[in-house]
Amino acid sequence: MDDFISISLLSLAMLVGCYVAGIIPLAVNFSEERLKLVTVLGAGLLCGTALAVIVPEGVHALYEDILEGKHHQASETQNVIESDKAAEITAEHEHAHDHSKLHAYIGVSLVLGFVFMLLVDQIGSSHVHSTDDPEAARSGNSKITTTLGLVVHAAADGVALGAAASTSQTSVQLIVFVAIMLHKAPAAFGLVSFLMHAGLERNRIRKHLLVFALAAPVLSMVTYLGLSKSSKEALSEVNATGVAMLFSAGTFLYVATVHVLPEVGGMGHSHKPESTGGKGLSRLEVAALVLGCLIPLVLSIGHQH
């Protein structure tokens, strides 16, 4: 029951924290230039978060069992006598085999996440391309894909937190919670600033933000309540948390690189020859983009344990 109370409190804190971070760009009135700068900063935050926080967290979650196993082995080897050398060698061989399997998981999960969003994007665009204004259809689709990609990612975060809560280890729960909040707050800020730049009405932006903010808490509760003891063990056996986080990192990378960055850089509207003048970023915008990329990196360095 204590676990249930802690997961409920963490979910509530996640919902409130994410929504408040996302409301900041809406609460402050920005001029056209300031809005562009905030959007560029948000794009940097999305890219930095994907590369510096989510991928390392996913890899760490994958390798956690093996790393813990090595710690146990190190403490046990002092008590092991010489005759057990052969058994140790076979155990090491199994570890090497596990490592190669996990390497494959990393690449496959990232690529599948990226391809999943690519397919969602294409399916979405095939429905809206029939309209008279393909440019408007493209930008509308871009908004939906961006939100969808971040919601898929937030859902994977929720599964990770729910799975962590089911381990009954408070330290694991708090580590996962801190890791999620470190990138959910910048992601919410980035999403809202991008949607504002894309010209979405404020009420609809709030709805997008609410869906994004709700995804992780709801999924964490569902995962926690839905997992039986045996399925919890099965999930930890196949490193489901790490795979889910890496899959969502792939979706995150797609959203950040294919939608948000081209829109911000003016590339999204460069189909016509006269729009070439608007291409590229000013020095201040480049600085904001780099700063946005570095903030999650600095936060993640501070969070490493």
* Average of per-residue pLDDT values: 73
Question: What is the count of structural domains?
Answer: 1
Kindly report how far apart the N and C termini lie: 28 Å
Q: Could you tell me the radius of gyration in angstroms?
A: 22 Å
Helix amount: over 70%
Shape: globular
Residue share in β-strands:
under 5%
> What can be said about the biggest beta sheet?
none
- The ordered string of helix (H) and strand (E) elements is HHHHHHHHH
Tally of individual helices: 9
Supply the helix-strand structural class: mainly alpha
Q: How many distinct beta strands? A: 0
Can you walk me through this structure?
- By secondary structure, this protein is an all-alpha fold.
- It has one domain.
- 84% of the residues lie in helices and 0% in strands.
- It is built from 9 helices and no strands.
- The protein has helices spanning 2-27, 32-77, 85-128, 134-165, 170-197, 202-226, 229-237, 240-264, 283-303.
- The longest helix has 46 residues, at 32-77.
- Mean pLDDT is 73; it is low at 79-83, 85-91 and 267-277.
Outline:
The protein is mainly α. It has one domain. The protein is built from nine helices and no strands.
Structural descriptors:
305 residues; mainly alpha; 9 helices; 84% helix
Question: How are the elements arranged and paired?
Answer:
Blueprint: H1 2-27, H2 32-77, H3 85-128, H4 134-165, H5 170-197, H6 202-226, H7 229-237, H8 240-264, H9 283-303
Helix pairs in contact: 1-4, 1-5, 1-6, 2-3, 2-5, 2-8, 2-9, 3-4, 3-8, 4-5, 4-6, 4-8, 5-6, 5-9
